[in-house]
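pipeline/complex-builder :: batch 7 item 3
reading input block
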Amino acid sequence: MNQLLPALSSESLKLKRTLALWMVFIAPFIVILLQFFILYDRANFFAGRDAWGVLMYGVTSIWAIFMLPLFITLETALLSGLEHSGQSWKHLFAQPIPRWSVYAAKLLTVMGMILVSTVVLVLGEIGAGKLLSDLRPELRFHESPNLTMMVRMATMVYLASWILLAFHTWVSMRWKSFALAAGVGVAGTFFAVFASGARIGKFYPWLFPVNAVSTSPERMKLAILLGIIGGAIIAVVGCWNVVRRDVD
Amino acid sequence: MNHTALETVGLTRSFGGLIAVNNIHLNVEAGSVFGFLGPNGAGKTTTIRIVLGLIKPDRGRVMLFGQDLSSHRLSILGRVGALVETPSLYNHLTGFENLEVTRRLLGCPKENIENALEIVKLTEAAHRLVREYSLGMRQRLGLALALLNRPEILILDEPTNGLDPAGIREMRALIKQLPAQFGITVFLSSHLLSEVEQLASHVGIIHQGTLLFQGSLNELHAHQHERLVLEVDRPAVAMELLTQQGWHVQREENNRLTVSSQGRKDAAFINSLLVREGLKVFHLSRQQPSLEETFFQLTGEPTAGDPT
Ligand SMILES: Nc1ncnc2c1ncn2[C@@H]1O[C@H](COP(=O)(O)OP(=O)(O)OP(=O)(O)O)[C@@H](O)[C@H]1O
Ligand SMILES: [Mg+2]
């Protein structure tokens, strides 16, 4: 841990003035905005229903199916891209710090950033709900939001996404190409559409975030369990792989 | 007291079928400036990457400060500063922030940043984005990064490559002051003989992965064979005569011959031999070969001209 803190503090300074940092706020904001306009536009249609519930399920679905997997792809690619384009690996790996700490710091930084985005998402949901209840009184926002439920769902989605975080951190550090990292992420997200109907859907990592809030308890448990355990395994193996390679 | 700062023992590394570094034994004395000279593709960068632990050798060991790199990597790297090929910089950060990123990793005091900036003369530009830096400024910031940890040995891979003449002069002046002012041992690679001559006290010549020469600059000079230039009335006869006696003779233009020789005794001997045989000697002079020629003799390749 003593060796990790310097690496983490160094990582955080690198975020200054980066798109990656802005995206932490932009990505959840886009999702909130989307769901906000759906409710605003079709207020009559949703008038009879529990508006907090509609808002929460809408936001969580868009986030878990599309935005989060693509966002993880983008963030890992951007962060590793800083090192690739600055030719910094040879400098970092020649510093008197353990090599694994360089890898771990990158992974933990992205994990932290996605966690912040998750918090922003929950805060955004509450804000959007309050605003909508003023603008569209016909929506049934009379009860206060089910905060426990919101935090629970966001947390489960986040935990199930660890496998994607670990995987994309490895891909982006291992290969220089931004196109490759982006291609893998987009393909993974794209094929999730087909996998969701199939039986293997519950084992398909890009579906783990959305499966984590599935109504089927089996799917839900599997997604969270495999998301965390798979994430841990890929993190260790990925680190081992990158750290042993020739540094160029 | 001369102890060894850097030593490599039988360093060997190949990429696919190509042996990039072949059984290299380097010996760099503490306090010296060691010029690691070789043409493009000779294996300089590969050697340096092995020394920094960035790639593993197929065979051989790296010893720094008397310790084995493979077993004391972290404590050794704490005493080493390096600039390999182009500097590793984040364009979206300022010069100062770039140093701070590394300082946080090292955990060294903040004043090291100020000092490093001062040495490379970037104090004024420290708070500008590196994106706006000139090539020379980037290279100097790279040097500052290498100096941040107050290293005992500085390893620089072609530190003047790509700079304009003014930038090259500036960089050389910076490097030159380091051993005397801060007691830093410098190991620098270059493909320019004149650069090594200007900066280094010791030189190692590498070619196609093999170390062809290692020693002080003086020893390199002593290693060279001088030549005798002769002008005679019947060069063909002279040539036959000298060759019979075992001299290595070459025919040049204008009735001239060059003879590989060593020192004044040879000159006197050859002169009397020719005169005794009735030849007329019009001209006789001893010539020291330039380092360029020595390099050419060793490697079979000319070195590039110095851009300054
Ligand atoms: N990662 C690699 N993969 C394959 N071949 C390599 C690799 N790195 C170096 N080589 C080869 O090893 C040889 C030595 O290369 P190296 O970069 O060490 O030379 P150098 O002396 O630094 O040359 P230069 O002056 O061009 O920088 C070259 O033939 C090069 O093509
Ligand atoms: Mg090189």
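note: Residues B 15, 18, 20, 38, 40-46, 191 surround adenosine-5'-triphosphate (ligand 1) (CB under 6 Å).
queue -> next item
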